[in-house]
Amino acid sequence: MEYRSSFRCVAGCEGSYDVEQVIYHCPKCGELLEVRHDVDALRQRSASGWIRLFEERAGTSRWPYGSGVWGKKEWVMPGLDDDCVVSLHEGGTNLFWAERYGQTLGLKDLWIKMCGNSHTGSFKDLGMTVLVSVVKQMIKHGKPIRAIVCASTGDTSAALAAYCAAAGIRAAVLLPQGKVTTAQLVQPIANGALVAALDTDFDGCMAIVQKLAQEDGIYLANSMNSLRLEGQKTVAIEIVQQFDWEVPDWVIIPGGNLGNVSALGAGFDLMYELGLIARRPRICVAQAQAANPLYTAYKTGFKTFEPMTALQTEASAIRIGNPISIRRAIRSLERYNGVVEQASEGELAEATAAADRTGTFCCPHTGVALAALTKLVKRGEIKPNDRTVVISTASGLKFTDFKVRYHENKIPGVESQHANRPIEIENNYEKVKSAVLKAL
Q1: What's residue 133's pLDDT?
Q2: What letters, b where the CB count within 10 A reaches 16 and e where it falls short, cover 132-160?
């Protein structure tokens, strides 16, 4: 069976476009595009047949199916040649049973999907493997692409630089100067990308990069390019597979540019259409209070949406005031009986620290989702027995400065309730013993 995919307008305009075409918006209405699959062809294999195939491929050394993304190749990018796949063994991340943290909230079935346990330390690897692979095939077929570019708050640039380095394709990244961590900044530098630090915020970088992508030979890698979402949707599939093909009751995901929200919905949608699951979960999008345009729109019933100037937040990767995927995200939330919550700086910091005390090492964006979880539990929307999954989007190792400042009680406006500073002791056994036993 030959499986096909193509770009289609998210607003439903007629027309389809080849996934190797350099196109980001519908030529008729200007809306974003999305990748659509030939679902009728996919239905020729039974739901049980797809499950068997995906289980057989899990962890295999047979190229390229050992990847968590490319193990679902027919559902992601079926027309891609195997020799054009650029994979760093992304996906397949662990589903952490947050038993102790769940107990503090009165939850019996809380899980954290650790998407940061990936090659560059974030979920962005899932989308970048697809986009860079397609570009590699485009170049193979004669497209004159000189470089792939992106605007980033840190993680997208790291993923793009790594995958381009592996593919032998030039990468250029635009970052807001002084607004990404050192760990995030050094990743694209180390992988040989052209790094431009702009005296603006992410939205300013995004405005520039969209103009830059109109130049000949420059290809755009931000999530307005829906190739990214095809890889990111495998998070939903992985979660269900890790639960032995059962659907959780709730999924909570941090939201910035909002592509990941619609990707999550797309993954559940495809499983539902092909009969692998019989119901959909509820979705909560969690935003930092300092950058909450989706939350503000949600409070109006999505009747209005107003971009904002995002304020300073420790959750720097979601410090976005004008999310490019707003329409796609709203559409997904409406299908999934979704809710939107927000978290203040104090709430996200304390939620991160409390979770860390039970064995995680969360990024501040995961802290936003955990803070939203706390609010939903207190309101009774999430019940004690609901199986709940929080999406952890990046490794806490990228945000060590945030954690150090928390434990030194140096985050403005935050009184660190779980601060845990080292005890400085003279190199003397009796004094060490006394201090340790006293602290215990």
Answers
A1: 98
A2: bbbbbbbbeeeeebebbbbbbbbbbbbbb
- Residue span of the structural domain in which 268 resides: 95-121+229-407
Q: How far is CA 15 from CA 6, 42, 199, 306, 309, in A?
A: 10, 21, 40, 30, 35
DSSP at 282: E
State the amino acid at position 329 in one-letter form.
A
pLDDT at 365 over 80: yes
Distance of CA 356 to the CA centre of its chain: 20
* Helical (H) or strand (E) element with 232: helix 227-232
Is 362 within the bounds of a domain?
yes
Judged against a pLDDT cut of 80, whether residue 1 lies above it is answered with no
Helices (H), 58-119: 73-76, 99-105
In a domain, 170, yes or no: no
Residue 367 lies in a domain: yes
Q: Rounded CA gap, 361 and 378, in Å?
A: 24
Does residue 288 sit in helix, strand or coil? Answer: strand
Q: Check whether 323 has a pLDDT greater than 80.
A: yes
What distance in Å separates the CA atoms of residue 164 and residue 189, rounded to the nearest whole number?
12
Give yes or no for a contact between 153 and 430, defined as CB atoms under 8 angstroms apart: no
Contacts of 45-54 with C-beta under 8 Å, sequence gap 24+, read 45/1, 46/275, 47/274, 47/275, 47/276, 50/274, 50/276, 51/245, 51/276, 54/237, 54/241
Question: Please, what is the average pLDDT of the chain?
Answer: 96
pLDDT of residue 144: 96
Between strands 218-220 and 147-151, the pairing is parallel
- Determine the average pLDDT of the residues in 206-215: 94
Residue 339 covered by a domain: yes
pLDDT digits (tens, 9 = 90+) for 246-258: 999 999 999 999 9
The CATH number covering residue 265 comes to 3.40.50.1100
108/105 Cα distance (integer angstroms): 9
Q: How far is CA 370 from CA 45, 105, 236, 248, 362, in A?
A: 38, 10, 18, 17, 10
Rounded CA separation 323/123 (Å): 18
In angstroms, rounded to a whole number, what is the distance separating the alpha carbons of residues 243 and 136?
34
Could you give phi then psi for residue 125, rounded to 5 degrees? -60, -35
Helix (H) or strand (E) holding 112: strand 110-114
Number of helices followed by number of strands (H, E) in the chain: 17, 13
Number of domains comprising the chain: 1
- Within 13 Å and on the Cβ side, how many CA atoms surround 77? 31
